[in-house]
Structures are given as structure tokens and as C-alpha cells.
Write a structure and sequence with these properties.
By secondary structure, this protein is of the alpha+beta class. It has four domains: 223 residues, Immunoglobulin-like (Sandwich), CATH 2.60.40; 280 residues, TIM Barrel; 75 residues, Golgi alpha-mannosidase II (Immunoglobulin-like), CATH 2.60.40; 93 residues, Immunoglobulin-like, CATH 2.60.40.1180. It contains eleven helices and 49 strands. The strands form eleven sheets. It has an eight-stranded antiparallel β-sheet with strand order 4-5-6-7-21-18-17-15. The longest helix has 24 residues. It is an enzyme of class 3 (hydrolase).
Length: 772
């Protein structure tokens, strides 16, 4: 929200009071509180009839500093609030006549009281940002409404990322962003997943601790500042430091929650009925059997909205006319090796039998006069489940538990964005704050049920809406995109932005949701979709099975599904890393190459785990231009070696794309390509790419319980490779990509392979020496 008229003037009707003259700094054991007048105090009389603003600095954990700005703190504070984690962090505090310093880990805040309002944040002694004169401010508007804002310095060459799943330009500089969840598709400034956290390429992040609307002006109102504001008497934010951008995300997700680990089966291909298509068991079997007949590995079948009878969403009852034997049908599908996902939402249509049940028991959100809140958008007369009522949560869970008992394995938790603000919640929550936060309670309830019923590391959602902390309940997908190359690109931007907001796992509707893609768009999107953390064929008005597009689409789906499954040993270890460090599987280039300024603007390519670079193709002709950082990279699909440190232009058919392996990489490749949940360590192949003299590479293979089964390290000294394996209880081999032969092998044997020399360790061997 803009409060100024140019640099000098204030907008008509607004009054801004800035902290100007620091009058006192109060030191406690774990905090500093700064009291600042909003004018310079010359005499004691100047202290009368004036405003005193407060800023309190503390730390919930190392390398994180909490800043609480407030005017009047005596008002009633209503929830909800983000659930944040705290550690017993010992801070170092010093104070003298010039000011004060609070230090947490390598991050510190310096308050200089000799220069008006002068606050600096430093990491390892280097200033990263700060708040100076006329930056922080308490503001009253035309109707006497109150706001608090902060303006943090934005340096030359500094870029801002994140703020949730945003489909606007990847770099947020120059944009106006309001964190207000909306069902706006992927082609607008609106977002399903608004996260009040941004990441700077200077190596720090800022999390604004407000679930309600946070209004950002990013190098827009003031071109050298990031401004954020909220309505009310208080503004709280956290400065989050780290040695690099990955460490910043690690610290942010320590504060707001780490992503859970999705089960291995979720990484396979999902196929849905699509939205408004007609389907029954025969239709479902036609598609499932058609996939099997064409050797297209399918892991999950999803039933979208019309598994329930129209006008009754949600009642969680199968439409008898279409599915007279749901238990039998699900059992028959599961006999084919499939997991089952069912579409749900948190809305109860008036025609649903659950409406009266919910109304009578007080399980539905109400209006001020005690009536049930209703409207006709989406479902006729629909109401909203009140997840602030523990009994309503248990009631909702009990209805879903019936589906789990029938054979459902996962839920697509759709919607949760259009939440009204003129309502009353059971626990008295502020309805404005609940607008964004509602989705957290919704997804948490469903995820908890799955964990309780099925087990930890077996729970998985397919969720559309989210707020800060929502990363704990994966997986999330990108919402309603169009069937065009432009929408494919905007979907990727949204996913990269979400990944820089602490979300580890993300998907999208392969070939677009709205309309029906042309065969070329379908095939290019399949490549991208099966090189994403999660992969789902879904649409609105037409089926998405590949043979309805053309026969080559069948081949492309087969090749890339099998490719992804074969990479599961590498991918699942990357997934585990996402849960431990809070970094995304699909990540913007700047996360892995923060020292390379060319990566700062890249939004049409990404790293898939630590070692694989993917550059999707966004045109029918197959032309692609992408950037490779320094080193010799190898195309995993073609074997072509490309020198980096430059932009590359190539042309690809539908069987290939730039899937480039970073030099000095060891990629774990599985022996199975038919299903994603297999024994990753058994007969695993470790593919070694461009290991330079003096360097080493490591591959870790975990099982489906996230336990390490095999760790292989390869180091090179001149023409000698030393290989060390820990936990080598199952057969494994090493593939020297691009090499035709080696001079000798100690501790194993060599043979020629399709991709290079295959070195097989002797039974039980834990080391190899290879003479190149």
C-alpha cells in the first residue's frame, strides 16, 4: 500500500509518524527495547502530547532476529498466529552511550542513537540491510485507521524473490504484492499461496509475522527500499541470516516448519479423471488399462470432483449412479498396483446431508447474528467448515476416515482461498487474519488424519492453497493454468517462487488445466512435468491420456515416466534433503550458484536436486536457449558434453531436452523403471560425470524410511579414482559416463555399457581403485 506522493509528500488523508529521536534503550537478558519520539526533543515540554514508538529486538534461534514495532500495545490481540518454533538462543547484548547491539549467531542488529533513527543488520560483520530515517512509520488514514510500515534498504544489484507462488516476473523488484489468497488462476497477479517471506540475493530473508494481508512495495514506492505494511498498531518481522541462500531457507523453515517427506509412490505419474468429464468405473478402467497396455507406468489414479453427486459437494459419498460399488472398484484398482486419490474441499453445499448435521452441531462458520454463513459461488448455498472448532475438526476427519477405510490413500485438498471476512469463528479468531490462515487449519486437519491413519512418511496431499508453514503438509500444485507455452512458463515461475518461500515439493497440471493443449504443447509439458518433483496429468473439460493427442505423445510419456522412476534413488535422497534443510527439490539457479550473477534472473530453467539442470522447451520448433555455469556439463539423455560459463542455443525433438549434469556429480540410478517405490539400493548404478583432478563426488542412497543404505564417495588424483562405499550390503556398480575403457580395476571388474565403462564391485567390497 502506498502512503506517499513521490519522495517528499504524503498522500492526502494520511499522516505518518516516524521514529526520529531515540530517547531510551532498555536492555533485558534476552532483548533490547528502543523508545523513539516521532520528533526531535529539545526541551522537557517537547515530551508532552507526542507519540513514543517502540522497537523490541530479540532472537528465537541462532541467526534469526525478531523485530517488533508498536505504537499502542494494550489492545486485545486476536488470533490466529503462525505457529513458530523457538530454541533457547543465548544472545549477546552490549549497550553504551552511542547505542546498542544484539547478536544472535553470526547475525546482529546495531542501533545507533547518535544519528536519529539508524538501525543496521549485519551478517558476519557485513551490513546486509537496515532501517533509517523516514523508514519505519506509524500511519493513520482518512478514516483514522492505523497502519504500521517498515522500509528496509535495498542495495545496488540486490534482487528480491519469493512471497509465495507468484506467477508475475520472477524477480520481484518493481512489483506491488499483497499477500491475500485468491482463486485467480496462474495468469494474474493473484496467488493461491501467499507467503509473507522474501529472499534476497544478498544472502538474507525477511519474514513478516502476520497471517493477514501484508502489503509490499518492492522498489516501487521507494525504489531503494522494500516496504511492507499491515493494518493495526503493531508490525513484527524477522531478519533471517545464513552463509548462503540455502542456509537462509534452512533457518526460515526451522522457524516455520520443515516439509514432511512424501512417500515414494507419490513421485510416480498421477492420472486424473479431469474436472467436468463424464466418467464411471468403466471409463476409469479404460484409461488405467490403456496405460498398462502401452507400457506407461502409472502410480496414482485421482478421482476429481464428480465422484460425488452434483450439488452435494462435499458430502464424501460416492455417486451411486456412477459408482455403485466404490469399495469393490477401489480394491480392483489397487490390485493393479495403483494408489488412489480423491478430490475434496472444505465447503458443504446446502443439499449435502452434512449441512444440517454441521449446522445443528455448530460445526460451520457463522455470521454475526448466529446464522450459518452461506453463498452460491461454487456450490449452491454452501457453508464453510469451522476448523477453529476442535469438534468440527474431528467431525470432518471422521467423514474422510470412511474414505480411507474404503481404500483411498490421499486427498486433493482443493480450494480454501475465497474465505469471507464478515464472519464469526468458534474460537473468536479475527476473520481478516483467518482469510489466509484458514488453509493452514484445513490442510493440517487432513494431513494429520492421514498420518494417524496411514502412518508418518505415508501421508500426502495434493493441495492448492497455503500460507506460511503450509510447507509442512506436502504436496502443493500450481492451480488452474492454461494449455499454452506461456502458461507453462508462468507455472514454472510460480513454482520457483514457491520454492524460494520454503516449500520443498511442487507440481502442476501437465499440459495445462483450461482448454486442451495441442500435441506439441502436451509433449513439451510432459517433459517438464516428469522432471518436476511431482507429476500429474490433469485437465478441465477433456481427458489427458496421451493417445488422445498422438502416438508420439505415448512414447514421450513412456520415456520420461521411466526416466523419472529410474532416477528415484537420486530424487528420493533429494527429497530427504528438502525435509532436513527446507530447500526445494526444484530450485531456482541462484540457490546453487549464488556467486554467479547471471543466475539471478533465470526463470526458464532450474536445478532438480543438486546435480541436474533442466531447461524446459517453450515452443513448437524445439528451440531452447539456456545458461550453464562454469564447467563441463553433460546431457544425461544424449551424452553430449557442453562447456559452461555461457549461454547455449540448441534444438531438440520431443525425446530430448537440456537435462544437464553438473560436473563432479555422482548420480544414483535405480534398476527399476516400472514403479517409483522400489528397493533403491539394490543393483543401483552410480553414474560419474566429469570428475576433475583433485575433486570428489558423493552419492547417498536412502530407503523409503529415509534411512541411508549406501554412501559412495569417489575421489580423483591424477589418473586414479579411489572409490569408497559404506553400507554396501547390496550389489551396486559405478558407471564412468562417456569413457570407453579404463586401464585397470582393483576390487572389482569392468565391462562396456551403453553409457560408458561399468565397474562392478566384488561381492561385499567397500572400495575400488580405478586406473584411468
Amino acid at each position: 500500500m502506498k502512503f506517499t506522493d513521490g519522495f517528499w509528500m504524503t498522500r492526502e488523508g494520511y499522516h505518518i509518524q516516524n521514529p526520529t529521536d531515540i530517547r531510551d534503550i532498555v536492555q533485558k537478558e534476552d532483548s533490547l527495547t528502543v523508545y523513539a519520539a516521532t520528533k526531535y526533543i529539545r526541551t522537557k515540554g517537547d515530551t508532552l502530547n507526542g507519540t513514543l514508538l517502540k522497537a523490541t529486538y530479540s532472537s528465537p534461534m541462532p541467526n534469526v532476529i525478531r523485530v517488533t514495532l508498536n505504537h499502542h500495545k494494550g489492545g486485545m490481540k486476536k488470533g490466529p498466529e503462525f505457529e513458530l518454533n523457538h530454541q533457547d538462543e543465548k544472545v549477546d547484548i552490549s549497550k553504551n552511550e552511542q547505542g546498542a547491539v544484539l547478536k544472535s549467531g553470526n547475525l546482529e542488529v546495531q542501533i545507533d542513537k547518535t544519528n536519529g533513527w539508524d538501525v543496521s543488520f549485519l551478517y558476519e560483520g557485513k551490513r546486509i540491510t537496515g532501517s533509517g530515517q523516514r523508514a519505519a512509520g506509524y500511519i493513520t488514514g482518512p478514516s483514522k485507521e492505523a497502519y504500521f510500515r517498515e522500509q528496509l534498504d535495498l542495495g545496488i544489484g540486490e534482487y528480491v524473490y519469493g512471497l509465495g507462488e507468484r506467477f508475475t516476473p520472477f524477480v520481484k523488484n518493481g512489483q506491488v504484492v499483497d499477500t491475500w489468497n485468491e482463486d485467480g488462476g496462474t495468469s494474474s497477479e493473484q496467488s493461491y499461496k501467499n507467503i509473507p517471506f522474501y529472499l534476497s540475493n544478498k544472502g538474507y530473508g525477511v519474514f513478516v509475522n502476520h497471517p493477514e494481508r501484508v502489503s509490499y512495495e518492492i522498489a516501487s514506492e521507494n525504489v531503494s527500499k522494500v516496504q511492507f505494511s499491515v493494518e493495526g498498531e503493531t508490525l513484527e518481522y524477522f531478519i533471517i541470516g545464513g552463509d548462503n541462500p540455502k542456509d537462509v531457507l534452512d533457518n526460515y523453515t526451522k522457524l516455520t516448519g520443515k516439509p514432511a517427506l512424501p512417500p515414494a509412490w507419490t513421485f510416480g505419474l498421477w492420472l486424473t479423471t479431469s474436472f467436468t468429464t463424464d466418467y464411471d468405473e468403466a471409463t476409469v478402467n479404460h484409461f488405467v488399462d490403456g496405460m498398462a497396455e502401452r507400457d506407461l507406468p502409472l502410480s496414482v489414479f485421482h478421482f476429481d470432483c464428480f465422484w460425488m453427486k452434483e450439488y452435494q459437494w462435499s458430502d464424501f459419498v460416492w455417486d451411486e449412479a456412477m459408482f455403485p460399488d466404490p469399495e469393490g472398484m477401489l480394491a480392483r484398482l489397487k490390485e493393479k498396483g495403483l494408489k488412489i486419490c480423491a478430490w475434496i474441499n472444505p465447503y458443504i453445499a446446502e443439499k449435502s446431508y452434512l449441512f444440517d448435521e454441521g449446522m445443528e452441531n455448530g460445526y460451520l462458520v457463522k455470521t454475526a447474528d448466529g446464522s450459518v454463513w452461506q453463498w452460491d459461488m461454487w456450490q449452491a448455498g454452501m457453508a464453510l467448515v469451522d476448523f477453529t472448532n476442535p469438534d468440527a475438526v474431528n467431525w470432518y476427519k471422521s467423514k474422510l476416515e470412511v474414505l480411507l477405510d474404503q481404500g483411498v490413500d490421499s486427498f486433493k485438498t482443493d480450494f480454501g482461498e475465497r474465505i469471507p471476512t464478515d464472519v464469526v469463528y468458534f474460537d473468536g479468531s479475527d476473520p481478516v487474519k483467518m482469510h489466509n490462515y484458514y488453509t493452514q487449519l484445513y490442510n493440517k486437519a487432513v494431513f494429520e488424519l492421514l498420518e494417524d491413519k496411514i502412518g508418518k512418511n505415508e501421508a500426502a496431499l495434493f493441495a492448492r492453497s497455503a500460507t506460511a508453514g503450509g510447507q509442512q503438509f506436502p504436496v502443493h500444485w500450481g492451480g488452474d493454468c492454461s494449455s499454452t507455452y506461456e502458461s507453462m512458463a508462468e507455472s514454472l515461475r510460480g513454482g520457483l517462487s514457491l520454492g524460494l518461500s520454503g516449500f520443498g515439493f511442487w507440481s502442476h497440471d501437465i499440459s495445462g488445466f483450461e482448454s486442451t493443449a495441442t500435441p506439441d504443447v502436451y509433449k513439451r509439458w510432459v517433459q517438464f512435468g516428469l522432471l518436476s518433483s511431482h507429476s500429474r496429468l490433469h485437465g478441465s473439460t477433456s481427458y489427458r491420456v496421451p493417445w488422445l493427442f498422438d502416438e508420439e505423445s505415448v512414447d514421450v510419456v513412456r520415456d520420461f515416466t521411466k526416466l523419472k522412476i529410474s532416477l528415484m534413488p537420486y530424487l528420493y535422497n533429494s527429497a530427504v534433503e528438502s525435509t532436513v534443510r527446507g530447500i526445494p527439490m526444484m530450485r531456482a539457479m541462484l540457490l546453487d550458484f549464488p556467486e554467479d550473477p547471471t543466475t539471478y534472473n533465470l526463470d526458464t530453467q532450474y536445478m532438480f536436486g543438486d546435480s541436474i539442470l533442466v531447461a524446459p522447451i517453450f515452443n513448437k520448433e524445439g528451440d531452447v536457449r539456456y545458461y550453464l555455469p562454469e564447467g563441463t556439463w553433460t546431457n544425461y539423455l544424449t551424452g553430449a558434453k557442453v562447456q559452461g560459463g555461457r549461454w547455449i542455443s540448441e534444438n531438440h525433438d520431443f525425446k530430448t531436452l537440456p537435462m544437464m549434469i553438473k560436473p563432479n556429480s555422482l548420480i544414483a540410478v535405480g534398476a527399476v523403471d516400472s514403479k517409483p517405490d522400489y528397493d533403491f539400493a539394490n543393483d543401483v548404478s552410480l553414474h560419474l560425470f566429469e570428475l576433475a583432478d583433485g575433486n570428489s563426488a558423493q552419492a547417498v542412497v536412502v530407503n523409503q524410511s529415509a534411512e541411508q543404505e549406501l554412501v559412495v564417495n569417489v575421489s580423483r588424483n591424477g589418473s586414479v579414482l579411489e572409490v569408497r562405499a559404506e553400507g554396501a550390503g547390496k550389489p551396486w556398480n559405478l558407471v564412468l559416463r562417456g569413457m570407453e575403457s579404463v586401464s585397470g580395476v582393483e576390487g572389482g571388474s569392468q565391462a562396456s555399457g551403453a553409457n560408458g565403462v561399468v565397474v562392478t564391485a566384488a561381492a561385499g567390497a567397500s572400495s575400488l581403485t580405478i586406473q584411468l
